Protein backbone atom coordinates (compact mmCIF):
# COMPACT_ATOMS: atom_id res chain seq x y z
CA UNK A 1 0.00 0.00 0.00
CA UNK A 2 1.30 3.52 -0.74
CA UNK A 3 2.57 5.42 2.30
CA UNK A 4 1.41 9.04 1.98
CA UNK A 5 2.95 10.53 5.11
CA UNK A 6 5.49 9.55 7.75
CA UNK A 7 5.98 11.49 10.99
CA UNK A 8 9.33 10.49 12.44
CA UNK A 9 12.03 11.12 15.05
CA UNK A 10 9.58 12.13 17.78
CA UNK A 11 11.19 12.55 21.19
CA UNK A 12 8.13 10.76 22.53
CA UNK A 13 5.38 9.17 20.49
CA UNK A 14 2.43 8.66 22.83
CA UNK A 15 0.53 5.74 21.31
CA UNK A 16 -2.08 5.29 24.09
CA UNK A 17 -2.24 1.68 22.86
CA UNK A 18 -3.86 -1.06 24.91
CA UNK A 19 -7.33 -1.84 26.18
CA UNK A 20 -9.96 0.90 26.52
CA UNK A 21 -11.12 2.37 28.72
CA UNK A 22 -8.11 2.90 30.96
CA UNK A 23 -8.89 3.06 34.65
CA UNK A 24 -7.27 2.81 38.06
CA UNK A 25 -3.68 1.66 37.59
CA UNK A 26 -3.89 2.02 33.78
CA UNK A 27 -5.51 5.50 33.77
CA UNK A 28 -2.01 6.93 33.16
CA UNK A 29 -0.83 4.34 30.59
CA UNK A 30 0.56 6.30 27.61
CA UNK A 31 2.59 3.50 25.94
CA UNK A 32 5.40 5.81 24.80
CA UNK A 33 7.82 5.02 21.97
CA UNK A 34 11.05 7.05 22.12
CA UNK A 35 12.44 8.16 18.75
CA UNK A 36 9.04 7.05 17.49
CA UNK A 37 7.39 7.28 14.09
CA UNK A 38 4.14 6.49 12.36
CA UNK A 39 3.09 5.90 8.77
CA UNK A 40 -0.18 7.06 7.22
CA UNK A 41 -1.94 5.82 4.09
CA UNK A 42 -5.05 7.71 3.04
CA UNK A 43 -7.13 8.45 6.17
CA UNK A 44 -5.60 5.73 8.33
CA UNK A 45 -2.56 4.95 10.43
CA UNK A 46 -0.87 1.88 8.96
CA UNK A 47 2.28 1.45 11.04
CA UNK A 48 3.70 2.71 14.35
CA UNK A 49 7.17 2.00 15.69
CA UNK A 50 10.82 3.03 15.77
CA UNK A 51 11.91 5.75 13.37
CA UNK A 52 14.38 3.54 11.46
CA UNK A 53 11.79 0.80 10.88
CA UNK A 54 9.02 3.16 9.82
CA UNK A 55 11.23 5.23 7.49
CA UNK A 56 12.14 2.02 5.65
CA UNK A 57 8.49 1.89 4.48
CA UNK A 58 8.79 5.19 2.55
CA UNK A 59 8.65 5.32 -1.21
CA UNK A 60 9.31 8.14 -3.67
CA UNK A 61 5.95 9.86 -3.14
CA UNK A 62 5.93 9.68 0.70
CA UNK A 63 5.94 13.07 2.42
CA UNK A 64 7.80 13.27 5.71
CA UNK A 65 7.52 15.39 8.84
CA UNK A 66 10.51 15.53 11.15
CA UNK A 67 9.31 15.77 14.77
CA UNK A 68 12.77 15.79 16.36
CA UNK A 69 12.71 17.29 19.84
CA UNK A 70 8.89 17.21 19.90
CA UNK A 71 6.11 14.91 20.98
CA UNK A 72 3.51 13.19 18.80
CA UNK A 73 0.14 12.15 20.20
CA UNK A 74 -3.44 11.34 19.17
CA UNK A 75 -5.79 14.21 18.35
CA UNK A 76 -7.81 15.34 21.35
CA UNK A 77 -11.36 14.05 21.74
CA UNK A 78 -13.55 16.55 23.60
CA UNK A 79 -16.19 14.49 25.43
CA UNK A 80 -18.61 17.29 26.37
CA UNK A 81 -19.43 20.55 24.58
CA UNK A 82 -22.27 22.92 23.79
CA UNK A 83 -20.32 24.56 20.97
CA UNK A 84 -23.31 25.11 18.64
CA UNK A 85 -25.29 28.18 19.75
CA UNK A 86 -25.99 31.77 18.75
CA UNK A 87 -24.84 34.92 20.54
CA UNK A 88 -22.81 35.22 23.72
CA UNK A 89 -23.32 36.03 27.42
CA UNK A 90 -20.45 38.36 28.26
CA UNK A 91 -22.94 40.59 30.11
CA UNK A 92 -23.76 37.80 32.57
CA UNK A 93 -20.08 37.22 33.23
CA UNK A 94 -19.89 40.83 34.30
CA UNK A 95 -22.99 40.36 36.53
CA UNK A 96 -21.43 37.31 38.19
CA UNK A 97 -18.27 39.26 38.96
CA UNK A 98 -20.51 41.73 40.79
CA UNK A 99 -21.97 38.98 42.96
CA UNK A 100 -24.93 37.49 41.05
CA UNK A 101 -25.19 33.68 41.29
CA UNK A 102 -26.02 31.21 38.51
CA UNK A 103 -29.56 30.90 39.89
CA UNK A 104 -29.95 34.71 40.26
CA UNK A 105 -29.08 35.13 36.60
CA UNK A 106 -31.40 32.33 35.53
CA UNK A 107 -34.29 33.81 37.53
CA UNK A 108 -33.67 37.23 35.92
CA UNK A 109 -34.37 35.66 32.50
CA UNK A 110 -30.72 35.17 31.67
CA UNK A 111 -28.69 32.02 31.75
CA UNK A 112 -29.44 29.23 29.34
CA UNK A 113 -32.76 30.86 28.28
CA UNK A 114 -30.99 33.89 26.84
CA UNK A 115 -28.96 31.58 24.57
CA UNK A 116 -32.19 29.70 23.76
CA UNK A 117 -33.79 32.96 22.55
CA UNK A 118 -30.77 33.79 20.37
CA UNK A 119 -30.54 30.25 19.01
CA UNK A 120 -34.26 30.06 18.19
CA UNK A 121 -33.97 33.38 16.32
CA UNK A 122 -30.98 32.22 14.26
CA UNK A 123 -31.27 30.38 10.95
CA UNK A 124 -29.43 27.12 10.56
CA UNK A 125 -26.93 28.96 8.32
CA UNK A 126 -26.27 31.55 11.04
CA UNK A 127 -25.79 28.82 13.63
CA UNK A 128 -23.34 27.02 11.37
CA UNK A 129 -21.40 30.22 10.61
CA UNK A 130 -21.07 31.27 14.27
CA UNK A 131 -20.12 27.78 15.43
CA UNK A 132 -17.58 27.21 12.65
CA UNK A 133 -15.19 29.87 13.93
CA UNK A 134 -15.20 28.23 17.39
CA UNK A 135 -14.46 24.84 15.81
CA UNK A 136 -11.56 26.44 13.90
CA UNK A 137 -10.04 27.56 17.21
CA UNK A 138 -10.63 24.13 18.78
CA UNK A 139 -8.86 22.48 15.84
CA UNK A 140 -5.89 24.84 16.21
CA UNK A 141 -5.61 23.69 19.84
CA UNK A 142 -5.60 20.03 18.86
CA UNK A 143 -9.24 18.90 19.07
CA UNK A 144 -9.95 16.54 16.16
CA UNK A 145 -13.23 15.02 17.41
CA UNK A 146 -15.85 16.62 19.59
CA UNK A 147 -19.17 15.77 21.15
CA UNK A 148 -21.81 18.51 20.67
CA UNK A 149 -25.11 18.79 22.49
CA UNK A 150 -28.37 20.33 21.39
CA UNK A 151 -30.36 21.99 24.18
CA UNK A 152 -30.67 25.60 23.06
CA UNK A 153 -33.77 24.89 20.96
CA UNK A 154 -36.04 23.37 23.62
CA UNK A 155 -38.90 22.85 21.21
CA UNK A 156 -39.11 20.15 18.59
CA UNK A 157 -38.42 22.33 15.55
CA UNK A 158 -35.48 24.14 17.10
CA UNK A 159 -33.92 21.00 18.56
CA UNK A 160 -34.09 19.48 15.05
CA UNK A 161 -32.55 22.70 13.67
CA UNK A 162 -29.63 22.27 16.08
CA UNK A 163 -29.16 18.66 14.99
CA UNK A 164 -29.14 19.87 11.38
CA UNK A 165 -26.48 22.48 12.20
CA UNK A 166 -24.35 19.83 13.93
CA UNK A 167 -24.68 17.47 10.95
CA UNK A 168 -23.71 20.23 8.50
CA UNK A 169 -20.65 21.18 10.54
CA UNK A 170 -19.70 17.52 10.80
CA UNK A 171 -19.75 17.30 7.01
CA UNK A 172 -18.06 20.65 6.29
CA UNK A 173 -15.52 21.01 9.07
CA UNK A 174 -12.33 19.01 9.59
CA UNK A 175 -13.39 18.16 13.16
CA UNK A 176 -15.69 15.15 13.46
CA UNK A 177 -18.79 16.01 15.50
CA UNK A 178 -20.70 13.46 17.60
CA UNK A 179 -24.23 14.71 18.35
CA UNK A 180 -26.08 14.40 21.66
CA UNK A 181 -29.77 15.26 22.06
CA UNK A 182 -30.17 17.46 25.16
CA UNK A 183 -33.81 18.52 24.87
CA UNK A 184 -33.84 18.37 28.68
CA UNK A 185 -31.21 21.06 29.21
CA UNK A 186 -33.49 23.39 31.16
CA UNK A 187 -37.29 23.81 31.28
CA UNK A 188 -38.05 26.59 28.76
CA UNK A 189 -39.67 29.76 30.13
CA UNK A 190 -43.02 29.08 28.43
CA UNK A 191 -43.37 25.90 30.56
CA UNK A 192 -42.74 27.65 33.89
CA UNK A 193 -44.93 25.95 36.51
CA UNK A 194 -45.72 23.14 34.05
CA UNK A 195 -42.36 21.37 34.20
CA UNK A 196 -43.81 17.86 33.92
CA UNK A 197 -45.64 18.85 30.73
CA UNK A 198 -42.29 19.76 29.19
CA UNK A 199 -40.89 16.39 30.27
CA UNK A 200 -43.85 14.73 28.52
CA UNK A 201 -43.12 16.76 25.36
CA UNK A 202 -39.53 15.49 25.39
CA UNK A 203 -40.63 11.90 26.01
CA UNK A 204 -43.67 11.64 23.72
CA UNK A 205 -42.74 13.98 20.87
CA UNK A 206 -39.06 14.90 20.65
CA UNK A 207 -37.49 11.52 21.38
CA UNK A 208 -39.65 9.53 18.92
CA UNK A 209 -39.22 12.11 16.12
CA UNK A 210 -35.46 12.27 16.57
CA UNK A 211 -35.31 8.49 16.78
CA UNK A 212 -37.19 8.14 13.47
CA UNK A 213 -34.89 10.67 11.79
CA UNK A 214 -31.84 8.85 13.09
CA UNK A 215 -33.10 5.52 11.81
CA UNK A 216 -33.70 6.95 8.35
CA UNK A 217 -30.25 8.64 8.51
CA UNK A 218 -31.92 11.93 7.66
CA UNK A 219 -29.07 14.34 8.17
CA UNK A 220 -28.16 13.17 11.66
CA UNK A 221 -25.03 11.25 10.80
CA UNK A 222 -22.52 11.36 7.99
CA UNK A 223 -21.63 8.38 5.89
CA UNK A 224 -18.29 8.04 7.61
CA UNK A 225 -16.51 5.44 9.67
CA UNK A 226 -16.67 7.78 12.64
CA UNK A 227 -20.23 7.24 13.70
CA UNK A 228 -21.15 5.87 17.12
CA UNK A 229 -23.59 2.97 17.15
CA UNK A 230 -26.42 5.11 18.51
CA UNK A 231 -27.37 8.72 19.13
CA UNK A 232 -26.81 10.01 22.66
CA UNK A 233 -29.49 11.45 24.92
CA UNK A 234 -28.48 13.63 27.86
CA UNK A 235 -30.41 15.28 30.72
CA UNK A 236 -29.28 18.13 33.00
CA UNK A 237 -30.24 16.72 36.41
CA UNK A 238 -29.74 19.44 39.00
CA UNK A 239 -31.37 22.19 41.03
CA UNK A 240 -32.89 24.67 38.57
CA UNK A 241 -32.97 22.00 35.84
CA UNK A 242 -34.58 18.52 36.03
CA UNK A 243 -35.38 16.40 39.10
CA UNK A 244 -34.12 12.87 39.50
CA UNK A 245 -37.57 11.43 38.68
CA UNK A 246 -37.91 13.58 35.54
CA UNK A 247 -34.40 12.53 34.52
CA UNK A 248 -35.27 8.88 35.07
CA UNK A 249 -38.42 9.23 32.96
CA UNK A 250 -36.57 10.76 30.00
CA UNK A 251 -33.51 8.51 30.09
CA UNK A 252 -35.55 5.34 30.55
CA UNK A 253 -37.64 6.13 27.46
CA UNK A 254 -34.53 7.11 25.51
CA UNK A 255 -32.88 3.82 26.41
CA UNK A 256 -35.98 1.89 25.29
CA UNK A 257 -35.72 3.63 21.92
CA UNK A 258 -32.06 2.64 21.58
CA UNK A 259 -30.32 5.88 22.53
CA UNK A 260 -27.09 5.72 24.52
CA UNK A 261 -27.16 7.85 27.65
CA UNK A 262 -25.13 10.70 29.13
CA UNK A 263 -26.09 12.69 32.26
CA UNK A 264 -25.21 16.12 33.63
CA UNK A 265 -24.81 14.98 37.23
CA UNK A 266 -23.81 16.55 40.54
CA UNK A 267 -22.69 19.95 39.24
CA UNK A 268 -24.40 22.07 41.89
CA UNK A 269 -26.46 19.65 44.05
CA UNK A 270 -26.32 15.89 44.48
CA UNK A 271 -29.77 14.65 43.40
CA UNK A 272 -28.60 11.06 42.86
CA UNK A 273 -27.90 11.36 39.13
CA UNK A 274 -24.56 9.52 39.23
CA UNK A 275 -26.26 6.52 40.83
CA UNK A 276 -29.01 6.71 38.21
CA UNK A 277 -26.35 6.78 35.46
CA UNK A 278 -24.87 3.58 36.93
CA UNK A 279 -28.30 1.96 37.24
CA UNK A 280 -29.22 2.72 33.61
CA UNK A 281 -25.79 1.81 32.21
CA UNK A 282 -25.12 5.31 30.88
CA UNK A 283 -22.04 5.87 28.70
CA UNK A 284 -21.04 8.81 30.88
CA UNK A 285 -21.90 10.93 33.86
CA UNK A 286 -20.51 14.45 33.57
CA UNK A 287 -19.44 17.27 35.96
CA UNK A 288 -19.49 15.17 39.20
CA UNK A 289 -18.31 17.89 41.55
CA UNK A 290 -20.30 16.65 44.57
CA UNK A 291 -20.34 12.88 43.95
CA UNK A 292 -19.90 10.54 46.92
CA UNK A 293 -17.46 7.60 47.09
CA UNK A 294 -20.20 4.93 47.12
CA UNK A 295 -21.66 6.48 43.96
CA UNK A 296 -18.22 6.30 42.33
CA UNK A 297 -18.09 2.59 43.16
CA UNK A 298 -21.50 2.06 41.52
CA UNK A 299 -20.24 3.91 38.41
CA UNK A 300 -17.11 1.70 38.29
CA UNK A 301 -19.25 -1.46 38.38
CA UNK A 302 -21.38 -0.27 35.44
CA UNK A 303 -18.48 1.07 33.30
CA UNK A 304 -19.86 4.63 33.39
CA UNK A 305 -17.12 7.03 32.31
CA UNK A 306 -16.66 10.05 34.60
CA UNK A 307 -16.40 13.07 32.29
CA UNK A 308 -14.83 15.85 34.36
CA UNK A 309 -15.15 19.48 33.27
CA UNK A 310 -12.70 21.64 35.24
CA UNK A 311 -13.09 24.54 32.79
CA UNK A 312 -16.60 25.17 34.10
CA UNK A 313 -15.56 25.35 37.74
CA UNK A 314 -12.76 27.72 36.72
CA UNK A 315 -15.12 29.67 34.46
CA UNK A 316 -17.52 30.21 37.35
CA UNK A 317 -14.61 31.39 39.51
CA UNK A 318 -15.31 28.57 41.97
CA UNK A 319 -12.96 26.19 43.74
CA UNK A 320 -15.08 23.06 44.30
CA UNK A 321 -13.43 21.05 41.52
CA UNK A 322 -14.39 17.42 40.97
CA UNK A 323 -12.14 14.99 42.83
CA UNK A 324 -10.44 13.31 39.89
CA UNK A 325 -8.04 11.44 42.15
CA UNK A 326 -10.95 9.76 43.97
CA UNK A 327 -12.46 8.56 40.66
CA UNK A 328 -9.11 7.02 39.67
CA UNK A 329 -8.80 5.39 43.10
CA UNK A 330 -12.31 3.95 42.79
CA UNK A 331 -11.45 2.48 39.37
CA UNK A 332 -13.83 4.71 37.39
CA UNK A 333 -12.49 5.51 33.88
CA UNK A 334 -11.93 9.28 33.75
CA UNK A 335 -12.36 11.45 30.65
CA UNK A 336 -12.18 15.23 30.32
CA UNK A 337 -14.27 17.67 28.31
CA UNK A 338 -14.06 21.40 27.71
CA UNK A 339 -17.80 21.95 28.38
CA UNK A 340 -17.46 24.78 25.86
CA UNK A 341 -20.66 26.81 26.37
CA UNK A 342 -21.58 30.49 26.26
CA UNK A 343 -22.58 30.80 29.92
CA UNK A 344 -19.92 29.28 32.13
CA UNK A 345 -17.01 28.13 29.96
CA UNK A 346 -16.01 29.75 26.67
CA UNK A 347 -12.90 27.62 26.26
CA UNK A 348 -11.67 26.01 23.03
CA UNK A 349 -8.38 24.75 24.47
CA UNK A 350 -7.99 21.17 25.66
CA UNK A 351 -4.38 21.89 26.73
CA UNK A 352 -5.80 24.44 29.18
CA UNK A 353 -8.33 21.85 30.43
CA UNK A 354 -5.42 19.43 31.00
CA UNK A 355 -3.55 22.11 32.96
CA UNK A 356 -6.62 22.68 35.19
CA UNK A 357 -7.32 18.96 35.71
CA UNK A 358 -3.79 18.34 36.95
CA UNK A 359 -3.76 21.24 39.36
CA UNK A 360 -7.28 21.10 40.77
CA UNK A 361 -8.61 17.60 40.10
CA UNK A 362 -5.34 15.92 41.04
CA UNK A 363 -4.84 13.92 37.87
CA UNK A 364 -1.24 13.29 36.81
CA UNK A 365 -0.25 14.64 33.37
CA UNK A 366 -0.33 11.07 31.98
CA UNK A 367 -3.81 10.43 33.44
CA UNK A 368 -5.11 13.69 31.98
CA UNK A 369 -3.75 12.76 28.53
CA UNK A 370 -5.56 9.42 28.67
CA UNK A 371 -8.68 11.36 29.70
CA UNK A 372 -8.59 13.61 26.61
CA UNK A 373 -7.87 10.82 24.11
CA UNK A 374 -8.77 7.15 24.42
CA UNK A 375 -11.11 7.45 27.42
CA UNK A 376 -13.05 10.33 25.87
CA UNK A 377 -13.33 8.29 22.65
CA UNK A 378 -14.57 5.29 24.65
CA UNK A 379 -17.24 7.41 26.33
CA UNK A 380 -18.49 8.38 22.86
CA UNK A 381 -18.50 4.82 21.52
CA UNK A 382 -15.74 5.52 18.98
CA UNK A 383 -12.66 4.02 20.66
CA UNK A 384 -12.28 1.58 17.76
CA UNK A 385 -11.72 4.50 15.36
CA UNK A 386 -9.89 7.25 17.27
CA UNK A 387 -8.17 8.03 20.58
CA UNK A 388 -4.88 6.18 20.12
CA UNK A 389 -2.10 5.91 17.54
CA UNK A 390 -2.85 2.35 16.49
CA UNK A 391 -2.69 0.83 12.98
CA UNK A 392 -6.19 0.75 11.47
CA UNK A 393 -7.45 3.83 13.30
CA UNK A 394 -8.03 7.23 11.72
CA UNK A 395 -4.84 9.25 11.33
CA UNK A 396 -5.79 12.00 13.80
CA UNK A 397 -2.37 13.09 15.00
CA UNK A 398 -0.89 16.08 16.84
CA UNK A 399 2.66 17.35 16.97
CA UNK A 400 3.34 19.47 20.05
CA UNK A 401 6.42 21.65 20.23
CA UNK A 402 7.48 20.40 23.67
CA UNK A 403 10.20 17.86 24.55
CA UNK A 404 8.15 15.78 27.01
CA UNK A 405 4.44 15.07 27.48
CA UNK A 406 4.42 16.60 30.96
CA UNK A 407 4.89 20.03 29.40
CA UNK A 408 1.30 19.81 28.11
CA UNK A 409 0.14 20.09 31.74
CA UNK A 410 3.04 22.08 33.15
CA UNK A 411 2.69 25.01 30.73
CA UNK A 412 -0.59 26.83 30.31
CA UNK A 413 -2.11 29.80 28.54
CA UNK A 414 -0.31 29.42 25.21
CA UNK A 415 -0.93 26.87 22.48
CA UNK A 416 1.66 24.04 22.44
CA UNK A 417 0.11 22.36 19.37
CA UNK A 418 2.22 22.95 16.29
CA UNK A 419 0.60 20.65 13.74
CA UNK A 420 -2.77 18.94 13.45
CA UNK A 421 -3.30 16.02 11.08
CA UNK A 422 -6.94 15.01 10.67
CA UNK A 423 -7.81 11.84 8.75
CA UNK A 424 -4.32 11.88 7.26
CA UNK A 425 -4.52 15.48 6.05
CA UNK A 426 -2.41 18.31 7.45
CA UNK A 427 -5.14 20.76 8.49
CA UNK A 428 -3.19 23.07 10.78
CA UNK A 429 0.47 23.92 10.67
CA UNK A 430 2.41 26.66 12.34
CA UNK A 431 5.67 25.58 10.66
CA UNK A 432 5.13 24.14 7.20
CA UNK A 433 8.90 24.10 6.59
CA UNK A 434 8.92 20.90 8.64
CA UNK A 435 7.14 19.00 5.86
CA UNK A 436 9.43 17.56 3.20
ZN1 LIG B 1 -22.88 20.60 29.76
Pick out its properties.
single chain; alpha/beta; 8-stranded mixed β-sheet; 16 helices; 16 strands; 36% helix; 21% strand; binds zinc ion
Describe the structure.
- The chain is of the alpha/beta class and 436 residues long.
- The protein has 16 helices and 16 strands.
- It has helices at 51-55, 90-97, 102-107, 112-121, 124-140, 156-172, 195-215, 244-257, 273-280, 293-301, 310-315, 324-329, 350-360, 365-371, 374-379, 407-410, and strands at residues 5-14, 32-41, 44-50, 63-66, 71-74, 76-78, 143-149, 176-184, 232-237, 260-265, 284-287, 305-308, 334-336, 397-400, 417-422, 425-429.
- The strands form 2 sheets. Strands 1, 2, 3, 4, 5, 14, 15 and 16 form an 8-stranded mixed sheet that branches. The chain has an 8-stranded parallel sheet with strand order 6-7-8-9-10-11-12-13.
- The chain is globular.
Instruction: Report on the biggest sheet.
Output: 8 strands, mixed
Computed structural class: alpha/beta
Residue-averaged pLDDT? 94
Integer-rounded radius of gyration: 21 Å
Helical segment count? 16
**DSSP strand tally:** 16
Distance between the termini: 20 Å
Ligand inventory reads: zinc ion
User: Strand-residue fraction?
Assistant: 15-25%
Share of helical residues: 25-40%
Shape: globular
**Stretches with pLDDT under 50, minimum 5 residues:** 219-224
Amino acid sequence: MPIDLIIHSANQLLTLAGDAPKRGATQGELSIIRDGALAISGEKIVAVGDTLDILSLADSHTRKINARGKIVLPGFVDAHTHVVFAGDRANEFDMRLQGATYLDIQQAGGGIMSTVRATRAASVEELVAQSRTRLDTMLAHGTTTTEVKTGYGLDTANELKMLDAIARLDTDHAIDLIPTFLGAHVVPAEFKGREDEYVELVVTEMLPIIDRRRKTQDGLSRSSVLCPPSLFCDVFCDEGAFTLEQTRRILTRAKELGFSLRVHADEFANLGAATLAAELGAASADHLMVTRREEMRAMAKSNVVAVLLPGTTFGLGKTNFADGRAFVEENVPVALGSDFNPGTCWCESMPFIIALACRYEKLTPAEALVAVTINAAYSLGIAEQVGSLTPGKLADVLIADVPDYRHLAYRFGANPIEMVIKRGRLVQSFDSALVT
